[in-house]
Amino acid sequence: MNTADQYLKTIYVVQKQEDGPASTGSIADALGVSPASANEMIGKLESRGLAEHEKYKGVRLTDDGIVQARDALQTYCIIERFLANVLAVDEFRAEARELEAVIDDTVADRLDTIIDREPECPDCFDPETDACACLEVAAVPVESEQ
Known about the structure:
Blueprint: H1 3-18, H2 24-31, H3 35-47, E1 51-54, E2 58-61, H4 63-86, H5 92-99, H6 105-115, E3 125-126, E4 131-132
Antiparallel strand pairs: 1-2, 3-4
Helix pairs in contact: 1-2, 1-4, 2-3, 4-5, 4-6
């Protein structure tokens, strides 16, 4: 997955959360980049026919953009579930974000055979928790005050 895919994935999720065009500010915040950087990449996505940006309204993915975003989101969920469920990595979300930029489709497909991905993926991604809803992560016990 490359940087463009990370943007597509983020725009896709933000669009669903905002139930409409994704604002540049929301995209920038989600990716931890400046709004100027987000605008630059949105322009590149638009020139590739993957997104449509309307000034002051936000950005929407085209049909091709949605397909590529869903593929990127599915790859992210595969990586996240592998790290959490197979390797039991504590900081699996941070690791998944780092790895998603360097994992190619071949590696993702091979990881997919190990995790036994759910058929609803990538719709299993829960933007509220910023994680795959199919994760088998034990709940962290809340310490009681005494």
